[in-house]
Amino acid sequence: MAEQSVVQWAYRAQKRLGVCAEVPNFQEVEGFDGSHQGARALEYSADGAWLAIALEKGVAVYQVQDTRTSLKHLLPIEKGIELSFSPAGTYLSTWERPAKNEAGDQTTWSKNLRVWSTATGQVIAEFERRQLDGCFFQFTADEAYCVRQAGSELQVFDPKQLANGPIGRLRTENIGSFQLGPGSKPSIAVFFPEKKGAPAFVKIFALTSLLSSSPTHSAQKSFFKADKITFKWNSIGSSLLLMTATDHDQTGKSYYGETNLYMLSARGDFDCRVSLDKEGPIHDFAWNPNAREFLVVYGYMPAKAVIFSYRVNVIADLGTQPRNLIAFNPQGRLFCLAGFGNLAGTVDIWDRENLKDGKAFTLDASNSTTLQWAPDGHYLLTGTLSPRLRVENGLKIWHCSGKLIHVQMIDETYQLAFRPSAKAPPPFAKQIPAAPAPSAAAAELLARKTTAARPTGAYRPPGARSSGTSSSDYLRRNEDLGAAPAPVASQAKFVPPNAKGRRGKVPGAAPSSQPSGKANAAPKPAMGAADVSAQSAEAQSAEKRLRNLSKKLKAIEQLKDRRNKGETLEQTQLQKIQTEAEIRAEMQSLG
């Protein structure tokens, strides 16, 4: 079990790897070789004691401490794709692309799923697994048993004797997927898709039941409209949330298909459909770590967020916002509601003990694609990853009070991960603690944003920026930018270009009727035919510009409507929406 008191995170990018630790500057730790390029996967063990990285010519296994690492093994696996540790880090599973055997036999494939001893680096067992989805063994929390799906049956193994074959089975047809629950007496939820007009259903079995010759289920729930399913057990394994989804919505109301949410107890004494009162898809759902309640975000944008009890009674309605992601901190005291993907990237932090006061903090994590809580529950990581977005890749680390603590830009970042902890998270204080001072990189970014946010006078459209600016506006803008005040030219009588250098009355100008007290003010010239023509042309140009701006504004409104209905927009379309304020301001100046 790893001792941990320091916040640590790791990253995987196209050209390098890194492990960083210690708030707030997060320096690179000792003993880690980050020069490798093209790594395919990075995985911490659940106790934070090990870090495995799939490299081009092997899988590097590091032993991890707070501020240093040491390389323990380089497993001989070329072009490994995925990695998975057992709950206590005793076993490491690796998967590589399947290949036909050297003899070219069409029916024989390589044993591409391997289970290793993390401590010794030795292979314990090898299996053939052609598909990546659901390829790894699922272990019980104490690592006494592990389960895998093989064709039309579930197989139970003793991890210490994997090579000896299964010690228990569930033989049945049409198994779609399964999920092993947590807890000291774990259960297994098994999904059976629709078949030949029969409804889909889920059955829950006690794990020990599969060790007998005739397994029996303890709970069952059937439903139509279920092409696929998502399981989420609560932290003690007593209750199961399951979201069913169809590939297509037969009513035509949704592009993403139809979703429904159900609750099922492991003992079979309670089951129901979770009633959601806003039409539209379920964007996310999550259990509170206390296992007694869960949160759902659902409905067409702006989506609705509701907290339910484990008996599916409404605890709190959090209103509607454009949000599609939920993340509880390890203590369950704080949770985030975020809007990622085609949404603006706003993250709201709520205090579970003060819901009546509304959200506690809001932070701007625009363009983020991932969000994680640190094991201590005090820090939050948001990151922008490739290939979802290929610009401004990297991460920001925030304090739970909404303050930015650290920022680091990393080109072509593919993966970010906090180091987990085997220890229970420390109790959260009654009052949200104060944030530490930001790192140098974060302080520099905050300073730039503060400077950029300073007012620079009223907005003027590009076509009017070369004229009509008063000297006071000019001085104020230059002073805001830190420049020395420029001398202001004294106002003088207007002289057209073709009359410069000559004295006397301007041809076509009206006689001055200005009082003697304002002799230095410039007279207003009378407009001749050319001036009237120019003014008319300018008015026509402004009218044409207004028509073009109105068309752009209408297109933006249509894009916003599509986004609010849950449709995924392109990056260029999202950027177009962000220009709405500027377009409205320009229309106001032309109007």
UniProtKB/TrEMBL annotation:
The keyword Transmembrane helix does not apply. The lineage of its organism: Eukaryota, Fungi, Dikarya, Basidiomycota, Ustilaginomycotina. It comes from Malassezia psittaci. GO terms for cellular component: cytosolic small ribosomal subunit. One of its GO terms (molecular function) is ribosome binding. Functions in the early steps of protein synthesis of a small number of specific mRNAs. Acts by directing the binding of methionyl-tRNAi to 40S ribosomal subunits. In contrast to the eIF-2 complex, it binds methionyl-tRNAi to 40S subunits in a codon-dependent manner, whereas the eIF-2 complex binds methionyl-tRNAi to 40S subunits in a GTP-dependent manner. One of its GO terms (biological process) is regulation of translation. SUPFAM superfamilies: DPP6 N-terminal domain-like. Residues 517-540 have a biased composition (Low complexity). Residues 221-416 form the Translation initiation factor beta propellor-like domain. Keywords: Initiation factor, Protein biosynthesis, Repeat, Translation regulation, WD repeat. Residues 451-546 are annotated as: Disordered. Belongs to the WD repeat EIF2A family. This is Eukaryotic translation initiation factor 2A.
